[in-house]
Write a structure and sequence with these properties.
Shape: globular
Strand order of the largest sheet: 4-3-5
Protein name: Peroxide-responsive transcriptional repressor PerR
Keywords: DNA-binding, Repressor, Transcription, Transcription regulation, Zinc
Organism: Shouchella miscanthi
Bound molecules: zinc ion
Order of helices and strands: HHHHEEEEHEH
Pfam family, one: FUR
Family: Belongs to the Fur family.
Length: 143
């Protein structure tokens, strides 16, 4: 999938029947400005000052809509703290084991792994996910 800019994302929403609201716009804008792969809670905390009537549930529902339209990717880690990524093109993530920071890492897609997995197991492979763990620059220098 192509890498969307904020304007393209807004266009993609317009082309569906999703109504653009000030809250939706603010959530999208925040996602595209931060490269931090925020959780719904972090988005809520960043925007609650501007939208006092907004709840975490509202943020969640909007993120779900964005996900359905294909302009946001959800990175789930087996608990409730899913992180959201507006870079929907294929890329990998390097994750700090200390502070949880996620940094995009662009590397040619390992498509041959999928082909090989398909051959070996007979599965119909859909996608794969690779994560690289370590200590980020900030945490490294804090020691
Ligand atoms: Zn760190
Ligand atoms: Zn990412």
């Amino acid at each position: 999938m192509a890498n969307h800019s904020l304007l393209e994302a807004i266009d993609a929403l317009k082309s569906t029947r999703v109504r653009m609201t000030p809250q939706r716009h603010a959530i999208l804008e925040f996602l595209y400005e931060t490269k931090a792969h925020p959780t719904a809670d972090e988005i809520y905390k960043a925007l609650e000052g501007r939208f006092p009537n907004m709840s975490v549930a509202t943020v969640y529902n909007n993120l779900r809509v964005f996900k359905e339209v294909g302009i946001v990717k959800e990175l789930s880690y087996g608990d409730s703290s899913s992180r959201f990524d507006c870079v929907t093109s294929n890329h990998y993530h390097v994750i700090c084991k200390n502070c949880g920071k996620i940094v995009d890492f662009h590397y040619p897609g390992l498509d041959e792994v999928e082909t090989l997995a398909e051959h070996v197991t007979g599965f119909e492979i859909e996608n794969h996910r690779m994560e690289i763990y370590g200590t980020c620059v900030t945490c490294k220098t804090a020691h």
